[in-house]
Design a protein that fits this description.
Blueprint: E1 3-5, E2 8-10, E3 49-54, H1 58-69, E4 76-81, H2 108-115, E5 127-130, E6 135-138, H3 141-150, H4 167-182, H5 184-189, H6 194-214, H7 228-247, H8 259-269, H9 280-287
Parallel strand pairs: 3-4
Antiparallel strand pairs: 1-2, 3-5, 5-6
Length: about 300
């Protein structure tokens, strides 16, 4: 797919399977924070920061969800990359409405070149960019979610999705859900051995069973309060039946086969601002796009008839 080396884009596969056939995700490298603190390197200011996402990326989805839930749409601007990557990685297509509103770039690696001098690494979304200093602040979704929750002070609404008293439980859910489900579906979809696939799918459905059990007792993962753990889980759930079920061979059960999870996911979907971040047809086409290993002919299956509007 390609990556940056010393600030230059090089066409090369940036993520590789290991000899075991197991998919390994490389870490994000740009990890600064926005803060209201005195002397902050990146202080909270309205209109200063710009968020780059792609609608089909679940890691980017969690950040744009938090932006909406915190009411920061008028303070943190947004650019959306085109759903399909090519040999230039994430690209923009202004004719189809996918435009870099800051620089008019053709590809996201051009933004990285401007905002992270000499950068070597993967070119990923989401990206939080500081317009004033022309720097990338952060390209790790976990950090950006926390920045949007607590880094903008009075610019955002008062709801705290990572309250101090619940942080140990939220962190425990996040870790388990990330390994077994958020990334577990990718471990299944990109597995290059039967053993790696079997292990990944086992993890996926074990955690789905555990979540189904939990949501039989509580409205949200932490009880009656929506938290960061729910926000990080939701993007995987909305992609499951139209993407991961078929394209990534996670076809033991569908989301709609889990009554509690299905009700929970639809409840979050109907929270004001959430459905505006959800694009089922983009997910369906994206996860079934042409792939020499997973979908050589690029055949896109017909979407299941699922009513999220209930």
């Amino acid at each position: 797919m390609g990556q940056m080396i010393d600030g230059q884009w090089v066409t090369d596969e940036g993520i590789r399977a290991q000899k075991s056939g197991e998919f390994k995700r490389k870490p994000s490298l740009l990890r600064d924070m926005v803060s209201t603190g005195v002397g902050a390197k990146f202080p909270a200011e309205s209109g200063r920061y710009h968020l780059y996402i792609a609608w089909n990326c679940p890691w980017a989805h969690r950040t744009v969800l938090m932006r909406a839930l915190k009411g920061l749409q008028n303070h943190v601007s947004l650019s959306v990359a085109a759903p399909r990557r090519n040999d230039q990685g994430w690209v923009f297509d202004a004719d189809r409405g996918y435009k870099d509103d800051l620089f008019g770039s053709k590809a996201l690696h051009e933004v990285y070149a401007k905002g992270a001098t000499g950068y070597t690494g993967r070119v990923t979304v989401p990206v939080l960019f500081d317009i004033k200093t022309n720097q990338i602040v952060n390209n790790e979704s976990e950090d950006i979610v926390r920045i949007l929750n607590s880094g903008f002070g009075d610019l955002a609404n008062k709801t705290d999705f990572y309250p101090e008293a619940l942080q140990p439980q939220i962190d425990a859910w996040n870790e388990r859900i990330y390994h077994s489900l958020n990334n577990g579906v990718y471990r299944a979809g990109f597995a290059e051995s039967q053993q790696a696939y079997d292990a990944a799918v086992k993890d996926v459905f074990e955690i789905l069973d555990r979540l189904e059990e939990q949501l039989g007792r509580t409205e949200y993962l932490m009880g009656d309060e929506l938290t960061e753990a729910d926000i990080r889980l939701f993007p995987t759930l909305v992609r499951f039946d139209v993407g991961y079920y078929s394209a990534f061979k996670c076809d033991h059960n569908r989301l709609i086969d889990f009554p509690n999870l299905w009700s929970y996911a639809r409840q979050i979907y109907h929270i004001p601002g959430v459905k505006d971040t959800v694009f089922f047809n983009i997910y369906r086409k994206g996860y079934n796009s042409p792939s020499p290993k997973r979908n050589i002919h690029g055949i896109v299956p017909i979407a299941p008839d699922i009513d999220w509007k209930e």
